[in-house]
Design goal:
It is built from 4 helices and 22 strands. It is mainly β and about 290 residues long. The radius of gyration is 21 Å and the shape is globular.
Length: about 290
């Protein structure tokens, strides 16, 4: 009897210690953004299946207005249902929104955007080369190059970093942006030294300028593609995009408030682009009248 009891106890402990693996799916990078296959099952309306941007810097998930109208939602402002992502079925509410500005330049129609709200119950592991998304309920141990505290700002996961334009240095919170390529800086904090009508200063996929340096997790990244961000909430200096994150495997644990940067087995070469100008940080306006 003692031997049987000991065997049962060991089995229970082993089961509890084993990591709970949720599921995974292939993904890809398009126009600087992470794109994943997903499906939203709506009671009485069927499934909306296709491609979604995976943007960890988006506080709320959204369904493209065109998709909503073509799938029978009419003038509804929200779609509810079970979101199937990486083999998981997640109760989700997606606000219906016009995503034409996010859709521009993509070769296929995007059905929507999956943000941080849907992923809050998981440890999100994202490898960009080759692109793979894994969702864990309990992630197994991993040796990280760095583990950073995550602060939620207006529902957006963010980490601390510093930027340098060659003259001025600023430190603040940056969104973990998987929906854009370069470093994005709040438009009230920065300006271009040179800007022509041929470039888009807020481009997500082709950042038109260069930032002298970004300091993150004890590492300095020089001459980084950069763009302005017009809708950064108070408390965020900007966002760090996939050009930087492609150097790591990201493991984001929102429940514990931490981001682990893990060395991938294989890292792709950084994407190169030409820049018509450089990036300058600007003093923050202290009043609306200035």
């Amino acid at each position: 009897m003692r031997r049987v009891a000991a065997t049962i106890a060991l089995a229970v402990v082993s089961a509890a210690a084993w990591p709970a693996w949720a599921g995974e799916t292939e993904c890809w990078i398009d126009n600087g953004a992470v794109v994943v296959p997903a499906a939203l099952a709506q009671p009485g309306l069927g499934d909306i299946t296709g491609d979604f941007i995976l943007d960890l810097s988006a506080p709320h998930s959204q369904l493209h207005l065109t998709t909503a109208q073509s799938d029978g939602l009419g003038d509804a402002t929200e779609a509810q249902g079970a979101l199937t992502l990486a083999g998981e079925h997640i109760a989700a509410r997606l606000a219906v929104a016009d995503l034409d500005d996010r859709q521009w330049g993509f070769p296929t129609t995007l059905n929507g955007l999956i943000g941080a709200d849907v992923l809050a119950g998981y440890v999100v592991e994202l490898r960009l080369s080759p692109c793979r998304l894994t969702l864990w309920r309990r992630a197994p141990p991993a040796t990280a190059l760095a583990t950073l505290p995550v602060t939620m700002v207006a529902g957006i996961p963010s980490i601390a970093a510093s930027i340098f334009d060659g003259t001025k240095r600023r430190r603040g919170q940056f969104a973990i942006d998987t929906g854009a390529a370069g470093v994005r800086i709040g438009a009230d904090r920065a300006r271009f030294s040179r800007l022509s009508a041929r470039v888009d200063p807020v481009s997500r996929d082709h950042p038109p300028a260069r930032l002298a340096a970004l300091s993150l997790a004890g590492r300095v990244f020089q001459n980084q593609p950069a763009a302005l961000e017009t809708d950064a909430p108070a408390g965020l200096l900007g966002g760090i995009g996939t050009d930087i994150w492609s150097r790591y495997v990201l493991r984001l644990d929102l429940r514990r408030g931490r981001l682990s940067l893990i060395a991938p087995a294989k890292v792709s070469a950084p994407r190169s682009s030409r820049s018509p100008g450089s990036f300058r940080t600007a003093a923050r306006r202290r009043s609306a009248g200035r």
